[in-house]
Each structure stands twice: as structure tokens, then as C-alpha cells.
Design a protein that fits this description.
This protein is an alpha+beta fold and 105 residues long. Helices cover 15% and strands 11% of the residues. The longest helix has 9 residues, at 49-57. The radius of gyration is 26 Å and the shape is elongated. It starts with a strand and ends in a 32-residue tail after the last helix.
């Protein structure tokens, strides 16, 4: 399979467009019903350019968000606001192990 300069187009898949009634070549991959996860990769649908544009137009991550929430989500540090724990030189160990704490059966 060869990719094109047009981002996402894959030539030679041998797939037809999954849109009902369309006989164009399915050169663009879109997420299917089963998402990728622990059980392996997800399913994909193959669409022609016209139908993948329709599919993508129905997806809006920012739907229902205020302009302030959108700006916060687009921040380069989004998700990194949590405090990190400081590293301790003794790795949290107060004292070395004592030989009396070990038992050899």
C-alpha cells in the first residue's frame, strides 16, 4: 500500500466505500464500531473522499464547551497540571533492612 501526499489516502486497499449505495474506492480509513483496546486493534470503515468528509464533519470534540474551556483544552500543557511528587534520595526507605526481619525456612 502506498500513501499519498493527501493525508490519510491509502491507494490499493481493494476496499469499496462502506457508505450505502457508493461504488467508489474506499481509500480513507475511519474508526468502526469496535474501538482499539486491550483485546487488540479496533475495526475500521473505509470511505471515499466525499463520505469520509461527511463522517468527519459529524465529529466535534469541542461541542458544548465554552470558549474558555476550548482554550484550556488546546493549551500545550493540557493534562499536566497535576502536582508531581518530589524524589527523595533515600527512595522513601527510612532505614536499611535488619537481618532479624528475614526468615530462612
Amino acid at each position: 500500500m502506498k500513501t499519498d501526499k493527501f493525508h490519510g489516502r491509502i491507494h490499493g486497499t481493494g476496499q469499496l466505500c462502506n457508505a450505502p449505495g457508493c461504488d467508489e474506492a474506499g481509500e480513507f480509513r475511519a474508526p468502526g464500531v469496535r474501538r482499539p483496546g486491550f483485546d487488540g486493534p479496533g475495526d475500521y470503515r473505509w470511505f471515499c473522499l466525499e463520505h469520509v468528509r461527511q463522517f468527519n464533519s459529524g465529529y466535534d470534540f469541542f461541542a458544548g464547551m465554552t470558549p474558555e474551556e476550548i482554550l484550556k483544552a488546546q493549551s500545550p500543557l493540557s493534562g499536566w497540571e497535576r502536582e508531581t511528587r518530589a524524589f527523595r534520595p533515600d527512595a522513601g526507605i527510612d532505614s536499611p533492612p535488619r537481618w532479624a526481619d528475614f526468615a530462612d525456612p
